[in-house]
Amino acid sequence: MLGPVILAASRSDRMRRLVSAAPVTKPVVDRFIPGETVDEIVPIIRELTGQGLELTMDVVGEDITTPEQAEAARDAYLELIDRLEPLHLGTRAEMSVKLSMFGQALDGGHELALKNVRPVVEAAAGIGTTVTLDAEDHTTLDSMFAIHEELRKDFPQTGCVIQAYLFRTEADARRLAENGSRVRLVKGAYKEPAEVAYQQRHEIDKAYVRILRTLMEGEGYPMIGSHDPRLISIAQELARTAGRKLDEYEFQMLYGIRGDEHLRLAAEGHRMRVYTAYGTDWYGYFMRRLAEKPANLRFFARSMVSKG
User: Fold this and answer.
1) C-beta separation of 117 from 99 below 8 A
2) Cα(76)–Cα(73) distance, rounded to whole angstroms?
3) Which residues are catalytic?
4) Chain segment 186-198, per-residue pLDDT in tens
Protein backbone atom coordinates (compact mmCIF):
# COMPACT_ATOMS: atom_id res chain seq x y z
CA MET A 1 0.00 0.00 0.00
CA LEU A 2 1.96 3.00 -1.26
CA GLY A 3 -0.77 5.53 -0.56
CA PRO A 4 -0.13 5.85 3.21
CA VAL A 5 3.62 6.09 2.60
CA ILE A 6 3.15 8.93 0.12
CA LEU A 7 0.74 10.72 2.45
CA ALA A 8 3.33 10.53 5.22
CA ALA A 9 5.90 11.96 2.82
CA SER A 10 3.57 14.85 2.09
CA ARG A 11 4.23 16.10 5.62
CA SER A 12 8.00 15.55 5.52
CA ASP A 13 10.18 18.65 5.13
CA ARG A 14 13.05 16.46 3.93
CA MET A 15 10.92 14.92 1.17
CA ARG A 16 9.58 18.35 0.27
CA ARG A 17 13.13 19.60 -0.32
CA LEU A 18 14.10 16.46 -2.26
CA VAL A 19 11.07 16.48 -4.56
CA SER A 20 11.18 20.24 -5.07
CA ALA A 21 14.85 20.13 -6.07
CA ALA A 22 14.47 17.32 -8.63
CA PRO A 23 14.80 18.76 -12.19
CA VAL A 24 11.92 16.64 -13.42
CA THR A 25 9.47 17.84 -10.78
CA LYS A 26 8.21 21.06 -12.37
CA PRO A 27 7.04 19.60 -15.70
CA VAL A 28 5.27 16.79 -13.84
CA VAL A 29 3.70 19.16 -11.31
CA ASP A 30 2.48 21.29 -14.21
CA ARG A 31 0.26 18.39 -15.23
CA PHE A 32 -1.79 18.91 -12.05
CA ILE A 33 -1.10 22.56 -11.18
CA PRO A 34 -1.08 24.71 -14.33
CA GLY A 35 0.14 27.96 -12.79
CA GLU A 36 1.56 29.73 -9.77
CA THR A 37 -0.07 33.17 -10.15
CA VAL A 38 -3.42 34.64 -11.07
CA ASP A 39 -1.88 35.99 -14.29
CA GLU A 40 -0.88 32.45 -15.25
CA ILE A 41 -4.21 30.89 -14.36
CA VAL A 42 -6.61 33.30 -16.09
CA PRO A 43 -5.77 31.95 -19.59
CA ILE A 44 -6.40 28.42 -18.28
CA ILE A 45 -9.79 29.53 -16.99
CA ARG A 46 -10.64 31.01 -20.38
CA GLU A 47 -9.48 27.88 -22.19
CA LEU A 48 -11.42 25.40 -20.08
CA THR A 49 -14.65 27.38 -19.93
CA GLY A 50 -14.35 27.89 -23.68
CA GLN A 51 -14.50 24.10 -24.01
CA GLY A 52 -17.82 23.94 -22.16
CA LEU A 53 -16.28 22.96 -18.84
CA GLU A 54 -16.87 24.52 -15.43
CA LEU A 55 -14.23 25.07 -12.76
CA THR A 56 -13.64 25.15 -9.05
CA MET A 57 -10.48 27.09 -8.26
CA ASP A 58 -8.15 26.22 -5.40
CA VAL A 59 -5.27 28.41 -4.22
CA VAL A 60 -2.94 25.72 -2.85
CA GLY A 61 -1.35 25.89 0.58
CA GLU A 62 -2.17 24.48 4.01
CA ASP A 63 0.81 24.99 6.34
CA ILE A 64 -0.43 28.18 7.98
CA THR A 65 1.38 29.04 11.23
CA THR A 66 0.45 32.70 11.82
CA PRO A 67 -2.70 34.85 11.60
CA GLU A 68 -0.90 36.99 9.03
CA GLN A 69 -0.47 33.99 6.72
CA ALA A 70 -4.17 33.21 7.10
CA GLU A 71 -5.04 36.76 6.09
CA ALA A 72 -2.72 36.46 3.09
CA ALA A 73 -4.61 33.33 2.02
CA ARG A 74 -7.87 35.24 2.31
CA ASP A 75 -6.44 38.04 0.21
CA ALA A 76 -5.25 35.60 -2.45
CA TYR A 77 -8.82 34.41 -2.93
CA LEU A 78 -10.13 37.97 -2.99
CA GLU A 79 -7.61 38.75 -5.73
CA LEU A 80 -8.84 35.73 -7.69
CA ILE A 81 -12.43 36.94 -7.37
CA ASP A 82 -11.41 40.38 -8.65
CA ARG A 83 -9.91 38.72 -11.72
CA LEU A 84 -12.95 36.51 -12.27
CA GLU A 85 -15.44 39.38 -12.16
CA PRO A 86 -14.80 40.77 -15.67
CA LEU A 87 -15.01 37.25 -17.15
CA HIS A 88 -18.74 37.10 -16.24
CA LEU A 89 -18.65 33.34 -15.67
CA GLY A 90 -21.03 33.19 -12.71
CA THR A 91 -21.17 29.74 -11.18
CA ARG A 92 -19.17 28.31 -14.08
CA ALA A 93 -16.13 29.28 -11.99
CA GLU A 94 -16.51 28.78 -8.26
CA MET A 95 -13.87 28.41 -5.55
CA SER A 96 -12.79 25.65 -3.19
CA VAL A 97 -11.15 26.60 0.10
CA LYS A 98 -9.40 24.67 2.86
CA LEU A 99 -10.15 26.20 6.23
CA SER A 100 -6.66 25.28 7.41
CA MET A 101 -5.45 28.02 5.07
CA PHE A 102 -7.67 30.50 6.88
CA GLY A 103 -6.20 29.74 10.30
CA GLN A 104 -8.37 26.85 11.53
CA ALA A 105 -5.45 25.10 13.29
CA LEU A 106 -4.24 28.21 15.15
CA ASP A 107 -5.28 29.35 18.62
CA GLY A 108 -8.91 30.41 18.34
CA GLY A 109 -8.81 28.84 14.91
CA HIS A 110 -12.52 28.16 14.45
CA GLU A 111 -13.44 31.81 14.91
CA LEU A 112 -10.42 32.97 12.92
CA ALA A 113 -11.24 30.71 9.97
CA LEU A 114 -14.85 31.87 9.94
CA LYS A 115 -13.76 35.50 10.11
CA ASN A 116 -11.36 35.05 7.18
CA VAL A 117 -13.54 32.91 4.95
CA ARG A 118 -16.71 35.00 5.27
CA PRO A 119 -15.45 37.92 3.12
CA VAL A 120 -14.39 35.43 0.44
CA VAL A 121 -17.86 33.85 0.39
CA GLU A 122 -19.46 37.32 0.35
CA ALA A 123 -17.24 38.52 -2.51
CA ALA A 124 -17.94 35.34 -4.48
CA ALA A 125 -21.68 35.90 -4.09
CA GLY A 126 -21.14 39.45 -5.30
CA ILE A 127 -19.96 38.20 -8.70
CA GLY A 128 -22.66 35.53 -8.94
CA THR A 129 -20.69 32.49 -7.83
CA THR A 130 -20.01 30.51 -4.68
CA VAL A 131 -17.50 28.71 -2.49
CA THR A 132 -17.14 25.07 -1.43
CA LEU A 133 -15.44 24.18 1.85
CA ASP A 134 -13.00 21.33 1.27
CA ALA A 135 -12.81 18.47 3.77
CA GLU A 136 -9.50 17.82 5.50
CA ASP A 137 -8.55 15.24 8.13
CA HIS A 138 -11.28 13.97 10.44
CA THR A 139 -10.22 16.11 13.43
CA THR A 140 -11.20 19.28 11.55
CA LEU A 141 -14.63 18.27 10.33
CA ASP A 142 -16.85 19.35 13.22
CA SER A 143 -15.43 22.85 12.85
CA MET A 144 -15.83 22.77 9.06
CA PHE A 145 -19.47 21.67 9.23
CA ALA A 146 -20.24 24.32 11.87
CA ILE A 147 -18.71 27.03 9.67
CA HIS A 148 -20.62 25.67 6.68
CA GLU A 149 -23.88 25.86 8.61
CA GLU A 150 -23.13 29.40 9.75
CA LEU A 151 -22.24 30.63 6.26
CA ARG A 152 -25.36 29.10 4.75
CA LYS A 153 -27.53 31.37 6.90
CA ASP A 154 -26.54 34.26 4.63
CA PHE A 155 -25.14 32.36 1.63
CA PRO A 156 -27.20 29.16 1.25
CA GLN A 157 -25.34 28.21 -1.93
CA THR A 158 -22.12 27.58 0.05
CA GLY A 159 -21.00 23.99 -0.52
CA CYS A 160 -19.03 21.46 1.46
CA VAL A 161 -17.15 18.21 0.88
CA ILE A 162 -17.70 14.82 2.50
CA GLN A 163 -15.40 11.80 2.33
CA ALA A 164 -16.74 8.30 1.72
CA TYR A 165 -14.02 6.49 3.64
CA LEU A 166 -15.03 7.98 7.01
CA PHE A 167 -17.53 6.03 9.11
CA ARG A 168 -19.32 9.25 10.10
CA THR A 169 -20.06 10.31 6.55
CA GLU A 170 -23.30 8.40 5.98
CA ALA A 171 -24.88 10.30 8.86
CA ASP A 172 -23.40 13.58 7.63
CA ALA A 173 -24.80 12.91 4.15
CA ARG A 174 -28.31 12.30 5.47
CA ARG A 175 -28.25 15.59 7.36
CA LEU A 176 -26.86 17.57 4.42
CA ALA A 177 -29.27 15.98 1.94
CA GLU A 178 -32.21 16.92 4.11
CA ASN A 179 -31.22 20.58 4.42
CA GLY A 180 -30.62 21.10 0.71
CA SER A 181 -26.85 21.59 0.71
CA ARG A 182 -24.46 21.54 -2.23
CA VAL A 183 -22.26 18.53 -1.43
CA ARG A 184 -19.19 17.18 -3.16
CA LEU A 185 -18.62 13.49 -2.42
CA VAL A 186 -15.05 12.18 -2.69
CA LYS A 187 -13.41 8.96 -1.56
CA GLY A 188 -10.91 10.71 0.73
CA ALA A 189 -7.22 11.55 0.44
CA TYR A 190 -5.86 11.81 3.98
CA LYS A 191 -4.25 9.07 6.05
CA GLU A 192 -6.93 8.18 8.59
CA PRO A 193 -6.81 5.53 11.34
CA ALA A 194 -8.86 2.34 11.19
CA GLU A 195 -10.89 3.58 14.16
CA VAL A 196 -12.55 6.25 12.01
CA ALA A 197 -12.22 5.17 8.37
CA TYR A 198 -12.51 2.21 6.02
CA GLN A 199 -9.08 1.01 4.91
CA GLN A 200 -9.96 -1.31 2.01
CA ARG A 201 -10.81 -0.01 -1.44
CA HIS A 202 -13.88 -2.21 -1.88
CA GLU A 203 -15.30 -0.98 1.43
CA ILE A 204 -14.74 2.64 0.42
CA ASP A 205 -16.37 2.08 -2.96
CA LYS A 206 -19.45 0.49 -1.38
CA ALA A 207 -19.73 3.36 1.09
CA TYR A 208 -19.39 5.84 -1.77
CA VAL A 209 -22.39 4.31 -3.58
CA ARG A 210 -24.51 4.21 -0.42
CA ILE A 211 -23.77 7.86 0.33
CA LEU A 212 -24.30 8.96 -3.26
CA ARG A 213 -27.71 7.29 -3.28
CA THR A 214 -28.62 9.30 -0.17
CA LEU A 215 -27.53 12.54 -1.84
CA MET A 216 -29.34 11.80 -5.10
CA GLU A 217 -32.57 10.99 -3.27
CA GLY A 218 -32.28 14.07 -1.04
CA GLU A 219 -33.09 17.75 -1.41
CA GLY A 220 -29.59 19.05 -2.12
CA TYR A 221 -27.25 19.32 -5.08
CA PRO A 222 -24.84 16.36 -5.41
CA MET A 223 -21.36 16.88 -6.84
CA ILE A 224 -19.70 13.59 -7.80
CA GLY A 225 -15.97 13.88 -7.19
CA SER A 226 -14.52 10.80 -8.86
CA HIS A 227 -12.48 9.65 -11.85
CA ASP A 228 -13.62 6.04 -11.48
CA PRO A 229 -15.55 5.00 -14.64
CA ARG A 230 -17.63 2.49 -12.70
CA LEU A 231 -18.70 5.05 -10.11
CA ILE A 232 -19.48 7.58 -12.82
CA SER A 233 -21.80 5.07 -14.49
CA ILE A 234 -23.43 4.26 -11.16
CA ALA A 235 -23.90 7.98 -10.49
CA GLN A 236 -25.69 8.41 -13.82
CA GLU A 237 -28.01 5.51 -13.03
CA LEU A 238 -28.74 6.79 -9.52
CA ALA A 239 -29.54 10.22 -10.97
CA ARG A 240 -31.97 8.70 -13.48
CA THR A 241 -33.62 6.60 -10.78
CA ALA A 242 -34.00 9.67 -8.57
CA GLY A 243 -35.55 11.61 -11.47
CA ARG A 244 -32.81 14.24 -11.54
CA LYS A 245 -32.30 16.39 -14.62
CA LEU A 246 -28.78 16.94 -16.00
CA ASP A 247 -28.52 20.35 -14.34
CA GLU A 248 -29.49 18.98 -10.92
CA TYR A 249 -26.13 17.37 -10.19
CA GLU A 250 -22.60 17.57 -11.58
CA PHE A 251 -19.38 15.67 -12.01
CA GLN A 252 -16.07 16.97 -10.70
CA MET A 253 -12.59 15.79 -11.65
CA LEU A 254 -9.08 17.07 -11.12
CA TYR A 255 -7.21 19.12 -13.68
CA GLY A 256 -4.70 16.89 -15.43
CA ILE A 257 -6.54 13.60 -14.91
CA ARG A 258 -8.82 12.04 -17.57
CA GLY A 259 -9.12 15.20 -19.62
CA ASP A 260 -10.86 13.35 -22.45
CA GLU A 261 -13.52 12.20 -20.00
CA HIS A 262 -14.08 15.82 -18.93
CA LEU A 263 -14.92 16.72 -22.51
CA ARG A 264 -17.01 13.59 -23.13
CA LEU A 265 -19.27 14.22 -20.15
CA ALA A 266 -19.65 17.89 -21.04
CA ALA A 267 -20.53 16.96 -24.65
CA GLU A 268 -23.26 14.66 -23.33
CA GLY A 269 -24.84 17.63 -21.56
CA HIS A 270 -23.56 16.94 -18.06
CA ARG A 271 -22.25 19.70 -15.84
CA MET A 272 -18.55 18.85 -15.68
CA ARG A 273 -16.46 20.89 -13.24
CA VAL A 274 -12.66 20.73 -13.24
CA TYR A 275 -10.90 21.18 -9.88
CA THR A 276 -8.06 23.50 -10.85
CA ALA A 277 -5.35 24.37 -8.34
CA TYR A 278 -2.68 27.02 -8.61
CA GLY A 279 -0.08 28.68 -6.39
CA THR A 280 3.48 28.28 -5.20
CA ASP A 281 2.85 26.04 -2.18
CA TRP A 282 2.01 23.01 -4.30
CA TYR A 283 3.83 20.19 -2.51
CA GLY A 284 1.09 18.81 -0.24
CA TYR A 285 -1.52 18.96 -2.99
CA PHE A 286 0.81 17.25 -5.46
CA MET A 287 1.71 14.42 -3.09
CA ARG A 288 -1.95 13.67 -2.35
CA ARG A 289 -2.62 13.39 -6.08
CA LEU A 290 0.15 10.77 -6.25
CA ALA A 291 -1.29 8.93 -3.24
CA GLU A 292 -4.83 8.81 -4.58
CA LYS A 293 -4.04 6.79 -7.67
CA PRO A 294 -1.12 4.47 -8.49
CA ALA A 295 -1.18 5.62 -12.12
CA ASN A 296 -0.24 9.12 -10.99
CA LEU A 297 2.79 7.76 -9.11
CA ARG A 298 3.84 5.66 -12.12
CA PHE A 299 3.57 8.76 -14.30
CA PHE A 300 5.91 10.65 -11.94
CA ALA A 301 8.36 7.73 -11.64
CA ARG A 302 8.57 7.27 -15.44
CA SER A 303 9.26 10.97 -15.84
CA MET A 304 12.09 10.86 -13.29
CA VAL A 305 13.65 7.87 -15.07
CA SER A 306 13.31 9.35 -18.57
CA LYS A 307 14.43 12.86 -17.69
CA GLY A 308 16.70 12.35 -14.71
Assistant:
1) yes
2) 5
3) 134, 184
4) 999 888 999 999 9
